[in-house]
Design goal:
By secondary structure, the chain is of the alpha/beta class. The protein folds into three domains: about 150 residues, 3-Layer(aba) Sandwich (Rossmann fold); about 160 residues, 2-Layer Sandwich (Dihydrodipicolinate Reductase, domain 2), CATH 3.30.360.10; about 80 residues, ACT domain (Alpha-Beta Plaits), CATH 3.30.70. Helices cover about 35% and strands about 25% of the residues. It has 14 helices and 18 strands. Strands 7, 8, 9, 10, 11, 12, 13, 14, 15, 16, 17 and 18 form a twelve-stranded mixed β-sheet that branches. A six-stranded parallel β-sheet has the order 3-2-1-4-5-6, sandwiched between helices. A hairpin with a 7-residue loop joins strand 15 and strand 16. Helix 1 packs across helix 12. The longest helix is centred in the last third of the chain and has 21 residues. The protein starts with a strand and ends in a 6-residue tail after the last strand.
């Protein structure tokens, strides 16, 4: 064997990066692989636009079947994104005996079970390093380097758009809308940023991480998810007073024998390594029973970092082809899904909270609020009450000790019904000890 052939479906930004890496790094890839890795075919509906990469125009096609049905192509790279036709392309490729590389976190988080079962049935490798953390080698690290560990906790900043916006608000005092517009102008946010700022993209990635860390198949819709659109500079400044920073965090941890999984803005200690992860960078901080704590940091998106991960997967699969060792590593690390971990309902999670009440500046307000919190077994850790404002509305900020989430919900429903409360209370969860 002197050549291995790959086909690329989807010639957008990441696809162009993959083509660039494969064409510009041909020699070093051959030196590391031992054979030439050839990009034989590229399929996309648009084959006329300039992608800024030099390729032979004869390899372009508008028909994905030209790749899937080509007996010479061993590896299909799917970079179409979304659910369909990406899912059909992948399943068809698997049935044709072709290995698959994808960066499609939305598809894998919702339909991964079907795809991986088909891959196992057909003795096919499916690799997806680029689906989480862009160029950060987190999936391979968990599946291989850390496979002897029982993963105890994982905290991730895994959406660059949301992290950029929160960083601008924290470091420069921007309002949310202003920070979003800057992110869009720099190409860090889509025209419709909903998936990023509402936590949808993060929860897709977390569902994949949960499956390879804990062997549990959770659909994204079953994971508590909250975005960053309600965060204001006021909350950023109060967080600083408490020596916290606000990050959109993906959380998965085992405590008391149950798995706690959620995505939401979180206050974390300012001196924690994750608190210093700014801009579009991503980081995953995790703890294994043997390893202890470790943090993976790098560019979580972008043409070349993501292309680096995609081509790395292609090379891994090529090595398997050369050695004849398909399915050497199970796609989700575990041979079978674990059945012995209960998943906590978020309402039952016990956690500290930051609460910002917008109230009338009058005597007895704090007493009324604290009374209702006490009635629901919620104890106050600290209070900040600012001076009077011209509008008569003032913020009262409370941090709580650990409290059951559903108790807090009931308490806030009562508090928000008080005549002296002028707006809905903002609640942000606090993770004070990420070493647990």
């Amino acid at each position: 064997m002197d050549k291995i052939y790959a086909g690329l479906i989807g010639f957008g930004t990441i696809g162009a990066g993959v083509a660039r890496v494969l064409t510009e790094n041909t020699q070093i890839i051959k030196e590391r692989l031992g054979v030439e890795l050839v990009l034989k075919r590229i399929a996309d509906l648009d084959i006329t636009s300039d992608r800024g990469v030099e390729i032979d125009k004869d390899i372009l096609t508008t028909n994905a079947a030209d790749i899937i049905d080509d007996p010479q192509i061993s590896i299909v790279i799917e970079l179409v994104g979304g659910y369909e036709p990406a899912k059909s392309f992948i399943l068809s490729a698997i049935k044709k005996g072709k290995h698959v590389v994808t960066a499609n976190k939305a598809l894998l988080s919702s339909h991964g079970k079907e795809i991986f079962e088909s891959a196992c049935k057909n003795n096919i490798d499916v690799a997806f390093e680029a689906s989480v953390g862009g160029g950060i080698p987190i999936i391979k690290s968990i599946k291989e380097s850390l496979c002897a560990n029982r993963i105890e906790s994982l905290y991730g900043i895994i959406n660059g758009t949301a992290n950029y916006i929160l960083s601008k608000m924290t470091n420069e005092g921007d309002e949310y809308d202003s920070a979003l517009k800057t992110a869009q102008s720099k190409g860090y946010a889509e025209a419709d940023p909903t998936f990023d700022v509402e936590g949808v993209d993060t929860v897709h990635k977390l569902a994949i991480l949960v499956s390879i860390c804990f062997g549990v198949n959770l659909l994204p819709d079953s994971i508590f998810t909250e975005g960053i659109t309600q965060i204001t500079p006021v909350d950023i400044e109060f967080a600083k007073e408490f020596d916290y920073r606000i990050k959109l965090l993906a959380i998965a941890k085992v405590k008391d024998g149950a798995l706690d999984v959620r995505v939401h803005p979180t206050m974390i200690p300012a001196n924690h390594p994750l608190a210093g992860v700014d801009g579009v960078f991503n980081a995953i901080y995790m703890k294994g029973d043997a390893l202890g704590p470790a943090m993976f940091f790098g560019k979580g998106a972008g043409m070349m970092p993501t292309a680096s991960a995609v081509v790395g997967d292609v090379i891994d699969i090529s090595r398997n082809i050369i050695s004849g060792s398909h399915m050497r590593v199970p796609p989700l690390s575990f041979i079978n899904e674990q059945k012995n971990i209960d998943v906590k309902e978020t309402d039952d999670v016990k956690v500290e909270h930051y609460l910002r009440f917008t109230v009338v500046d009058s005597p007895g307000v704090l007493s009324a609020i604290s009374g209702i919190l006490g009635d629901h077994d919620i104890s106050i850790s600290s209070v900040i009450q600012k001076g009077r404002s011209a509008s008569g509305a003032v913020p009262v900020v409370v941090t709580t000790h650990h409290a059951v989430t559903k108790n807090l919900k009931h308490a806030l429903n009562k508090i928000d019904g008080l005549d002296v409360v002028l707006d809905r209370t903002l609640a942000i969860k606090i993770e004070d000890n990420l070493e647990d």
